[in-house]
């Protein structure tokens, strides 16, 4: 008993360590190979560069060394068409090509890829391209053979396996030209099957040929049909019924609104649609309706009246000149959809039920309120008051100064006679006292502003 326990324990340890080892290996393998997202973006970047290279070839096709290929240049440099000069002209602009952005390749992805394949491009230029300028493909040489970022077109996946035949353009090979994908055919609308050679449900084979185009059945058909018409359905779709017509049985839309009034509620309407129906709410102008909007009304809500032109209901203008609304003094009628409102005329405000003039002072106050606020907050920027104050202060100060000068002139003029000078000095003193208090007031007034 003890012995068998001893031999099972190591077995468990062995199994556990093997499991650990396996998970480790698979982890290393995973982190070693780039994920499919990365693979597909590398192929995208390389393909974008190859496309830009092709455009560069077209752009420089008629160029030369810049003065025609002279004999000297041809013997010393070769022709421009196969020269390093042209290669540089093209490669300089590969990642600046605006079309690269449209391929979903960012500028940094492009530059990273270009750095990787720059040497391969040069090898291609002096090798495959020089040997066969018309048919050599940069994508095949560099993106497929060189970096192995892509597969050749017609191949897919990590091993670049051949794509299935997707019925000559009726589907696309998933992963075509890349090292990712499923290798299955993604069929275009109307086609199905592994190679997109069958017609999908609700499509029929045109021309009756076994490989003819697949075209859509009438929407009236449930599944299969023999042609595009509603008379060619195998079965009718939901919301359609078989009706015998002159040219045979056809699938015809059922008018659910007529057959079973499915939209209940007093302010709703029913709209028949192909194969179905829709319930909608009446416009507020309607108390009953048969369709959307004001034109759909069959009866009008209060505040609305039957439309004078066309069908439906329109707003009643309660504010028409002969209306009895808002007739109080200084009242003004404002028409609203379905109702109206009585406002006061400009310059008047409501006091109880009456419109009364707005107080004049309060209107002035509101006009001045900004300045008052500014003054209170200690901001003396108010320009007109400051200007007025400056002028006033200057005038008052001139009077003050004039009185002193006047006294001095008088004193000089009546020199040596003390009585008039004393009287004049007293008068001047009185005036100066009065004037200084005026100056004080002007000054303080401004200070408070
Ligand atoms: C890519 O490599 C294969 C095999 O080495 C070769 O047959 C083929 O010609 C190469 N294609 C290009 C475009 O270089
Ligand atoms: C793969 O892509 C190429 C280039 O776009 C195209 O010519 C070819 O028909 C495609 N092949 C398949 C099987 O989708």
TrEMBL record:
Give the residue range of the signal peptide: 1-31
Keywords, A to Z? Disulfide bond, EGF-like domain, Isomerase, Membrane, Redox-active center, Repeat, Signal, Transmembrane, Transmembrane helix
Looking up CDD domains in the UniProt record yields: EGF_CA (cd00054), EGF_Lam (cd00055)
Q: What is this protein called?
A: protein disulfide-isomerase
Q: Where is this region: Disordered?
A: 355-382
Domain named EGF-like: residues: 315-356
Enzyme Commission number(s) from the entry:
5.3.4.1
**One Pfam assignment:** EGF_CA
Q: Name the job this protein performs.
A: Protein disulfide isomerase. Promotes the localization of acetylcholine receptors (AChRs) to the plasma membrane.
Q: Which PANTHER family match?
A: EGF-LIKE DOMAIN-CONTAINING PROTEIN, LATENT-TRANSFORMING GROWTH FACTOR BETA-BINDING PROTEIN 3
Q: Which family does it belong to?
A: Belongs to the CRELD family.
